[in-house]
Every structure is written in C-alpha cells, then in structure tokens.
Protein 1
Amino acid sequence: MAGDSLRGARLGSASFEDATGVTLSPRQTTEYLCSNQHITSVIFAADAEVPSNWDCRQCSQVAKLRNPSQAEQPEPETKVARTHLEILLERRTREDLEILLKEVLADLKLRRKNAS
C-alpha cells in the first residue's frame, strides 16, 4: 500500500508552466467614470465593440466612457446577398447565357427522346 501513494507535487495545486514565450492577443484599456468620480478600468480585446456604459466597481452606479471616441468604431461592411443570376452575369454576358441555355435545353430534349 505504501508504494501506491503519490509523492512530490500536490495534484492541481499549481501549474508547472510559466509565462515565457506567451504572446497575448491585442488589447485595449477603457476607462469609465461614474457620477461619484470613481474611475473603472476595463480591458477589452482590440477588435471588441466597447460599450458606452459600465457598472462602477465601487458604487455600482452606471459609469460612462471617459473617452467617447473609443466607442465609435466603424461599422463592419455587410455583404449583400446576390442571386445566382447576378453571379452568372459577372462572368458571362446575357447573350452567352442565352446560347448556353439553348444548347442545354437541346441536349436535355435529346436525352429525354433517347430514354423513351
């Protein structure tokens, strides 16, 4: 029984890894000011949308951004959904598509005729 016990490190008590060679993601520090003049600093990711209000850590009142320009980030461009026809018209002219349609319909009629 004595040979089965674990000796040395305590399991789960401490990490054996260190922080050398670890690069953190880009971050930004944002400061909020409440009506009682408490300053609350919050760290966000660099590409995160910064809220204009935050709860004060000392008095729990609503704190506002000290630098409102941080909240004004450009809106991401939204992709407009395109139809299949619009995508085809980017690659071919309408006349080319008409010719291709006639060829495909003729081929389809021929296959149906041969199948029966």
Protein 2
Amino acid sequence: MDTVAEIKKYVEEKKSLFLEAADKIWSYAEIGFKEFQSAKALTDVLKAEGFSVQEGVAGIPTAFVASYGQGHPIIGLLGEYDALPALKHPAANAVPSEELTTDNGHGCGHNLLGAGSLGAAIAVKDYMQAHNLPGTIQYFGCPGEEFGSGKMFMARDGLFNDLDAALTWHGGAYNSITTQNSQANLCLYFKFKGRTSHAAGSPHLGRSALDACELMNVGCNYLREHMLPDERIHYAYTDVGGTAPNVVQDHACVFYYVRSPKLSQVIELTERVKDVARGAALMTGTQLEIVLNDGLCEYIPNHVLSTLLYESFCEVGGPKFTPEEKALAAEFAKTFDPAVEEDKVRSMTTLFGADIARQYKGSLLVEDILPYKPNTVVTGGSTDVGDVSYCTPTAQMNVSTWAMCTTGHTWQVTAQSGSSIGHTGTIKAAEVLALTAIKAMQSPELLQKAREEYVKVTGGKYICPVPDDVMPAL
C-alpha cells in the first residue's frame, strides 16, 4: 500500500472521532479564551489516542500542546476552535432568519479547523507506529484566533521554537495554498473619562466621554487618506456611556483594530491613531486611558513548505461532494448578494489569474485544486498564524467547506460548518496535512531548505508585537 492510500485508510478509520469533535465544538460555539468544552472535546480524543497533553499553556486555560513521539524532526499542526458572537444559525439550514441573535456561532468554521488538524495528528501517529518513523508530531490547541491572539501569547512563551515546521488549514470556498501575506494587527481599547451633568440644565458643567469617542473616530476617518493603501483601521463601541440623552456621558470606550502589511508599519500607524485619541481628549476636556489588548504579526508563507503542501494536496486530490451536498450549496447560493460573485471574481483574478476566475464563476462547490502561484498580495485580514510563521517555517491551505461566494463571518458559514459539506472538506484537510507532515518528517534536506528560507525572510527571530506586561484577556 502506498503512503497516500495508507493515510486515507487511517483517516477513514478514525473520521468518526474527529467529526464528532467538530460537531461538539460547533454546538458549544465558545468565543475566544472561553473554549473550555471545545478544548476538552479535543484533548479527550488526543489522550485516548496516546498523546501526552500539556494543558493551560501560555497562561491560557484553553490552550494546550499534545505530543506523540520523541526527538526531531518535530512537526506541528495548528488547531483552532473559537466561535464568533451573534452568528448562531441552525446547521445545514439555508433559510435566513429574521430574528436578531446574540448567541455565538462558528461563522469562520473553526470547529472544522481544529477537528481537521486533529484527524491529521492521529493519522500521522498511526503511520509512525506502523513504520517506526522517528520524530514527533505535535498538535497545538490554539484558542482565541478571532479575539485575543492566542498563538501570539504561545509564541511569546516559546512554544513553537523547537518546531522544524508548522502546518495548518482553514475552511473556505475553494482548494488552494495560502501564498499571500496577511496583515499585522494591534488591538487597543480607548477609554475616555469625562464628567456627568444635566445635558439641558447644566451642559457647561459636563465633559462628554462619548463626544471624545466620536471625535476620535472622525479624526481616524480623516487619517485614512494619509495611510498606506493596504492599511486598515476599524472600530466598535464597547461602552457608549448610557442610554439617557439628558445625561452627559462621563464614560465611553471604543475598541480599535489597526492593521498594516508589516509589524513595523502597524506600530507606526498605531502611534498616529493614539495621537488622534489624545487630540480628542484635549478637545473634550476628558481623560484618556489606552489599553493594548493583543496583537499579531503578519503571516509569512514558507514557499518550500508550501510547495510540499501543494504537492501533497495534488496527490490526495480535492474533496468530492455528493449530489445532496451540491443541492444544499445551491440553496445557500440563493441567499447571496449578487455583488459577492463579482467580488469573488476580482479576488480570484488577483490570486490566480483571469482564466481561473472565469472558469469557476458560477460554481457551487469547488472540488479542483487551484494552481499554486506564489505572489506578493497582502490580504485585508489578519491571523495569529503569522506569529507562528515568525517562529518556524509555516504553510497553510484552504479547503472547500462551504459554497462558492459564501462570505466569511456570516450565518451562512455557521450553517455550512455544521453540515456534511463542512465534514467532507474536513476529511480532505486531515488527509493532506497528514501526508505533508509525514513527507516532511522523512525529508531532512527539505526541512533544512525551509529553515534557510525562513531565516532569510524573517531574520530567524520572533519579535512579539506586545510588551511582556500585556496578558491574555481571559
């Protein structure tokens, strides 16, 4: 039996374990650093499969490292399992809800991400046992990707330093290797303190913290014209000071994400945002407290390792969806905004070329593996996988787990991540990651080349984006 067939056999034999974990995590839908049941669903399986598990790492109760084997090479598999707020929706249900929800939902599909990497780790362990393959496979339970930057705190504690390589994946609308850089990101609370007063009877005695927040936001909107084209700043109010219009709000808070293509750039832009906030405080006579919550580095794909991941993906083949899954995808497609299709064509043209974009326009579920095309594109989003990529050679892929033109962080993702469409993609992810990990363990020359590229691109040293006194926001 060749390696590909053997890996598929191991994944098939254990798929009930990791798919059941995926469904449990989907139902728990716990947000960042609160994933207690979700982490347990994963560690229970890993312990039963013979992994040693170190829990509560990096000062985060829901972070863990599971290991099997000993010595080098050490290959890491990254797992995530946090949900998003206010995105609950029934599984496999393509009917939009008219009700506003405040309940959490897996609107980014991290229930699948953690489970797919779990399936891969078990398959690698089974292969190592069958062939007496030396080395170590490690599963990293990484909480708080959406909020909190769990991997950043794990990187700061040196948990990825001994790895020879790290592999991960994410659900999506097509099958590809992640070749583009993500944005570095700093996340800060701007807390304004003023003085309350009667808004009509004695407004002159009040100092509005809410006005300070609004002036800060206006100032940052003017700042947008004078930033780098790829930079982003956006915000959400976490405290509006109350609900009574006739009371001057003496407290208010706005939470900012500041993103730039590189860590050095995001630090510089953040100082400019801070200056805007200080100006708002001066204009309103309020006091300002700036709280750095977390941050993360940009993702640096390792092309030596990414090429291996692509070759393994091609050997294993893309996911094959059933007629029932394609019919379900068609129902979801009816709920998409028509503008989304044109936006998907634009983004695919940038990443893969116009021919590929035209070929898949109108597709429901993509089964093919899109070409591997290294590029210098910077995505608008951020991921704390970037911090791992500054610690060790790292590669990441996308696997079809939802219908084409599905937009991330939506109820449609939640619904499909709890469906058999998501399961089909997760099984495929487990196969590809497992095959890549085994090939890497058997190829010391390749790992050396990946290390040389990593050192050349990153300098071979991780620089944490936040000071040591910033702790996880548990």
Protein 3
Amino acid sequence: MNIVDGKVEELVDPTGIIEGQRYEFLLTIKLDEEDELYNENGTGLRILYSVKDGQKKMLTYQFYEMATDSPFDVEWDEEEQAAAEQFCLSHFPEM
C-alpha cells in the first residue's frame, strides 16, 4: 500500500456533546493489482481520529471505492495500519 495523497478536515460538533476534537483523513492509496484492496476505480481510505487532552487516537477506518464513494468491508494488516497511522500523525493540523 502506497499513500499517494491525503487531506484532513476537522469535524465540528455543533451540539457540543462530543468531548475533544474529531478529524477525518481521506487518503488516496495505490495498490498492486494482486492486492485484495485493489479496485480498478481507485481505492480510498477514510480514517477518523479523536484528540482529547492532547492525546490522538484512531477511532475507525474504512476503505472505499473512490469513483462511487462506496465502502467495502476488508481488514488491513499491521503494516498497512502502521503506514496509514504514520501518514496521519505526520500530517495532523497544528492545534
């Protein structure tokens, strides 16, 4: 898995119910055709992070087909998770 591009957006809770901050990362990933995550329409990865008291924690992730924004259910291996987390943590906005 190679992360080609990514963007991050802070998700604002207008109700104030959620403590801390939430950030959504949308990553574009490139995969070998043999990889089970490969999709000819492009594969994206959506990751949701929580930040509370300066602690960053990944809450959830979801792979999706980029052309249709349709999610697909597949688990990632430790190497893929580590690469995605490293990318996200190195691209976190200044707080």
Protein 4
Amino acid sequence: MRRPGPTAGADEDPVTEPVLGWIPAAVGAALVSALATWILTAGVAILGWLPGVTGSVGETLAFGSRMWLLGHFGGIRVGAAPWTLVPLGLTLIIVICLRATAAFAARQAYQAHRLRTGPAEPDGRTQVRLVGRVVAVQSGVYALVVLAVGLSAPGTAIGRAVVGALVLAVLATAIGALAGVRARLVDLLPAWARAVPRAVGTAQLVMLIGAAGALAATLLQQYERVTALSSSAGAPVTGVIALTVLQLAYLPNLLLWTGSWTLAAGFTLGDGSLVSPVQTQLGLLPAIPVLGGLPAEGVGQRALLCWLLVGVAAGVLAAVVVMRGRRAARFEERSLVGGLAGILSGLVFVVLALLSGGDLGSNRLTGLGPRPSELFLMAPLVMGLSAMVAGMIGGLVRMVGGRKPDRPKPGTSRRTTKERAGGDSDPDQEPTVVLD
C-alpha cells in the first residue's frame, strides 16, 4: 500500500494530537452511523403517520425500526405480509455513513501511531493492522446495535439483519479506514490488474446512467398516468413527502431493474408479469405513482431494442479503460483482456441487480426484480462481446496506424549499427548506396 499522490513531508502533513483514542472513535463511529440512519427512517415514518393518526407513536417508530432493519437486508413483516425488497437507497446512505465515520476513526489511529513513532509514514503492514483494528471494533459494535434494535422490534428476521449489517459494516468501514490511513487497496493488486476495478466501475456507471435515461423517458411518456396516480392518493403534504421519500429509497432498485430491461433481460412485478423491450405483460399492481410509468401491455416496438446500446457502451468503455495502460499489447491480447473486463463487468451488474429484488407480500407481489437466468446470460454476453470487439478494433487500428521504420533517402549510405554507435566498421565491407 502507499499514499495516493506524492509523499508529503513533515511540514506538509504535520503530526497532530488525535482528537480521540481510536477505540472510542470506532465505537462512537458505529453508534453515530446507526443513530443517524435510524432517525432518518423514523422521521419518514412519522411523516407518514401524521395525516392519518391511526396508530400510536410507538407503533410508528417500531415500523420505522423495521424499515431500518430492512435496509440491512433483514426481512420484516408489515401486518401479515412478509417484505424482503430492500430499499437500496437507504442501504447506500448507511454505507456512506459507515465509510465516513470509519475514515475519522482510522485517522485517529493513524495520528496516534505517528505521534509514537515519528513523522515517517507507516509501512504497509502497519497500515493493514490499523485498518483491521478499526474495522473489527466498528463492525462488531454496529452489528450489536442492529441486534438490539431487532430484538426491540418484533416481526423482523433478526439473523438476516445482523449478518447483512456485519457484511455492510465490514465492507464500508474497510474502504473508509483505508482512506483514513492514506492507503490504497488497489496497490495490493498486481500491476496488470490495477485498471480492472476502474474499468468495472466505469461500466456500472454507464449502465446506471443509461438506465436513468430509460426510466426518465418512460416516465415522461406516461406523465399523465403518473400524475393521476399521485393525485388519486389524496394524501396531505406530509403524506406526499413520505411517499416521495419512500419511492426515492427504492430508486436504486428501479435503476437496476431498468438496467436489466435495457439488456433485454427484463424484470417481473409479481407472479406471471413481464416487462421487457420485446414484450410487456402486467397484472394487478398497487397504485404507486412510479409504477404508472410502465409501458403498455403487448409486443414492444423494435425501436426499443436500441436501448441495448447501453450495455454495448458499458462494455466498450470497460475495454478502453482496462487497455489504457497496455499500449504495447498486440491486438489479440487487447481483444482478450477487453473481453474479460466486459464479462467481469456484466457479472458484477448481475450481482447488484439480484440484490435489488425481493417480495412485497406473499401473494401477488412476489419475486419482484430482474429475471436471474436471463440477466445472467445477457449481461456478460452483451458487455463481453462489445468489449472484446472494441479491444480488437483498437489493437488493429494501433497496429496499422503505428510508426513505420524510417527508410533512407536516395543517394545516402546505410551505415551499420556499429558505425552509428561510434564503433569501427568492417574495412572489407563497403557502404551500401540506395539507388533511385
């Protein structure tokens, strides 16, 4: 591991006294992250409760606690209906909070170490040890908090919530702690593989941007239906705000579902339903405004297949990014490496998309989300083929357009390598004159 950028001297990065010890900082980071995100979900629940006032405040806060646990992939029950559809927007906020607070806690450990050993930067082994301590303490405390909330909120799959919280905490705090000790995880990879994470990330970003464009386009096309569903709810301002925030919490899910749609794999909204560019088949759906943007039932128009270009663009950019540092590679090597980057990008998108699915009940709204087998086929296929072709074309263009060796001008002598180096030439060998 090393610090990003040039190494700073003692004057540029002075050793300062840590604000807290690293153990209190890690414990506090876990508690602050849990409290901040719980307050967010409880506040939204209170907003939804105010208009109707059909239950007690305690019941409303318990529902907010269950929704908070659902953000950790813990299944809950709303009445008698099981919910396993995770609001990935809330999960993303939890990850951001854990990462930011872990960076602060690791910074305290980093400053305390330098205060003991001097202004020199710690080596890689020391950085790993500092990161491991912060991750272990903060993740363990956070999992205990989730366990305590789960025990106090009935109707929750506590085991799933604790395991999900532990996995999220370890991943988020590890990334934040590495930043806190000024280390980069990518430096642990071999030199040839260091561009792969950036290539995969670029492909995921392209997929999300393309999905956002497709989602915005269909919402604009069905604008009247969406607004009609919004007005038919008849909720006051606080209820509208709560419903809007709830839909935003599921926005990453919708983007991943739309990304599966752009790959022609499609997604489902319950038993027997199908939404894809080729065909759309819907049944009874809840009156949620964002669902008003779904296309009409029947065979899809051929023009909708143009959205496959989103996956093609993701694969091409993944190949471009992964090959930027391999300028001397042959075209077949470029094609192979680009294709592998595209396939890996497709598999990562499959994993993310599968995390976005789940149930909202036990009857009609079960199995919501992308279709696993179709997506597992289409995502690596589209991205992998496009990346392989892009790598091959880029290699051929570079090979054909490369510089050719200079030819001597007519009438000039062609000297040997030994003569150009300043050595003695063979006296029996005459200089070669190129005839015009």
